Amino acid sequence: MKKFSCETHIDHALDMFVAETEEFPIMDKLTEEEKLSTKCSYCEEQATYIVSSK
Known about the structure:
By secondary structure, this protein is of the alpha+beta class. The protein has one domain. The protein contains 2 helices and 3 strands. The protein has helices at about 10-20, 30-35; strands at about 1-5, 25-30, 50. It has a 3-stranded antiparallel sheet with strand order 1-3-2, with helices on one face. It is globular. It starts with a strand and ends with a strand.
């Protein structure tokens, strides 16, 4: 499972990931190239982070 998040929604993305998977999430910053084509999973802003498992 992967969640993409902007700066505003990162706390919500981490909480939702744990609630849905019951696993410890890994949070990484997206590269500048990845940011261009990736939207936040919770709004229309450009994503800054990806939250995923191993």
